[in-house]
């Protein structure tokens, strides 16, 4: 049974605090920690379905933004900002969760926000980020002058082929953000691909995680646990790598 744990920056959470919803399998040691950055306020609940499809060795943390109810309910989805101030708050909130094999998944504005937090992590040497998944977003450097990449982790961009908010150049520009590997995954359709292609998105995440080399865990897996990687339960896919272009 999936276990839900909610954390905040303080015991008495205020509307300005970052909340962290932690989803893990209590009987299975985690091999990866996947931190999700939703693109809208009050949309955290939409990511629970993704978490349920992931392998039990993937622990999930959902970012709950200041003033975010966590559930749409009577609220309308509001795009989240990707300010440096918000990125700093998230960076501070994640201080106790960076000891495992770390992966970020950001959707729309949440992708650009995840990129800001990833920059801070690498700049300050706080953690080694394995992979940054960016979904439904043009790169922040698409109109910026060419400069050295700010990240060294792998970046995987997911884009719907008929998303009116994206441009091919904007999505491909994510490869300029890292000196590491860059993969582009294209999904059919327009907006809402996280819901309409939920299982395909999860398969992409699984394939990318399983392609990472074996590792020595930084921390003990816990009493009676053995840290191990499970083989994916779907057919392997061949992501399109843009390095050669």
UniProtKB/TrEMBL annotation:
<dbReference type="Pfam" id="PF00975">
    <property type="entry name" value="Thioesterase"/>
</dbReference>
<feature type="domain" description="Thioesterase">
    <location>
        <begin position="33"/>
        <end position="143"/>
    </location>
</feature>
<comment type="similarity">
    <text>Belongs to the thioesterase family.</text>
</comment>
<dbReference type="InterPro" id="IPR001031">
    <property type="entry name" value="Thioesterase"/>
</dbReference>
<protein>
    <submittedName>
        <fullName>Alpha/beta fold hydrolase</fullName>
    </submittedName>
</protein>
<feature type="region of interest" description="Disordered">
    <location>
        <begin position="212"/>
        <end position="245"/>
    </location>
</feature>
<dbReference type="InterPro" id="IPR029058">
    <property type="entry name" value="AB_hydrolase_fold"/>
</dbReference>
<keyword id="KW-0378">Hydrolase</keyword>
<dbReference type="GO" id="GO:0016787">
    <property type="term" value="F:hydrolase activity"/>
</dbReference>
<dbReference type="InterPro" id="IPR012223">
    <property type="entry name" value="TEII"/>
</dbReference>
């Amino acid at each position: 049974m999936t276990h839900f744990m909610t954390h905040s920056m303080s015991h008495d959470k205020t509307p300005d605090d970052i909340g962290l919803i932690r989803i893990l399998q209590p009987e299975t040691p985690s091999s990866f920690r996947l931190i999700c950055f939703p693109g809208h306020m009050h949309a955290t609940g939409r990511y629970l379905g993704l978490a349920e499809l992931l392998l039990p060795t993937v622990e999930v943390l959902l970012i709950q933004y200041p003033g975010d109810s966590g559930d749409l309910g009577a609220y309308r989805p509001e795009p989240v900002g990707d300010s440096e101030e918000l990125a700093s708050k998230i960076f501070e909130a994640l201080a106790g969760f960076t000891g495992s094999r770390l992966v970020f998944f950001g959707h729309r504005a949440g992708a650009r926000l995840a990129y800001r937090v990833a920059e801070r992590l690498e700049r300050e040497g706080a953690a080694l980020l394995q992979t940054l998944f960016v979904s439904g977003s043009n790169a922040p450097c698409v109109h910026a002058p060419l400069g050295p990449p700010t990240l060294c982790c792998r970046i995987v961009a997911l884009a719907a082929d008929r998303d009116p908010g994206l441009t091919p150049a904007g999505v491909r520009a994510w490869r300029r953000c890292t000196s590491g590997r860059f993969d582009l995954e294209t999904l059919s359709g327009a907006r809402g691909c996280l819901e309409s292609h939920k299982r395909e998105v999860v398969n992409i995440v699984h394939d990318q995680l399983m392609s990472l080399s074996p590792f020595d865990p930084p921390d003990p897996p816990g009493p009676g646990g053995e840290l191990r990687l499970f083989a994916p339960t779907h057919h392997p896919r061949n992501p399109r790598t843009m390095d050669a272009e």
